Task: structure prediction
Amino acid sequence: MASAATHTWTPADAPRLDGKSAIVTGATGGIGYETALGFARQGATTILAARNAQKGAQAVARIRQAVPGASVRFEPMDLASLASVAAFAAAQPAVIDILVNNAGVMGFPTRQRTKDGFEQQIGVNYLAHFALTARLLPALCAAPQGRVVSVASLAHRRASLDLDDLQSERAYNPMRAYGQSKLAELVFALELHRQARRNGWAVSSMAAHPGWASTDIIGNGMGAGGGLAGLKAGLIATVFGLVAQSAHDGALPSLYAATAPEAKSGGYYGPTRFNETRGTPGEARIFPQATDPTVGPRLWALSEKLTGASFSLPQPAH
Result:
């Protein structure tokens, strides 16, 4: 495969994935759907994980129409419920080659809570993915080259991580909470890489971001509740849609991170043109707040405490 730096990388450049399995969260629309479609085109058994069964069935039908004979299925998982995450993980195969932590919500006008009492954005965008990855670690390590791709955002650049107020209880600002959740996802991806190397886990951890991509994430958060907030969300989505690249192009960094031989564990990938807002995928810039060596372990320990999930492999029988 040619390097993404020398030509426009497309999913067709990815290696064949026959016999491999891939899970994509939030895969019923937008970037998640396009990511799942890319895996299916390359022959992977692709699992669409999301909470809306009707949208899931429609997404599966669309993929099968685009890729006749594709091995693809929908399985329900509500990232706003750790019990649902645990049930989903328990039902997965013993070997998983690729996990893409993609699903996200953004910009709820007022502070919402998950079923476990977490602020909605940090709970769905980050804590649920932390717990899911922990529960799937044995299956990922059982694969020849297991990869975890965590989807962050350009929003991490302006964000800060307040580990003393991860739930935005002191003061809630919609976009501050969103930025914090995406920064947490990036910090997690980098820390998972370090933990894997330290503990000898046979898994690679990458992060990716879609640049400016047109999806329904704005409506999924900012439009919640309708009224003026809904009108504002619709206006923002319309204006953003005029300057954003497509969901197909927004999915390229995730597909690149998940499949390209040159994508490295601990790497961060995104569009490479116009300040990483669009263009062919390649290495992305990580801002200093994501690389502070003291933050990763602290966030990891706090996440284990909040979710009750821990990263460990079964001990071999003697």
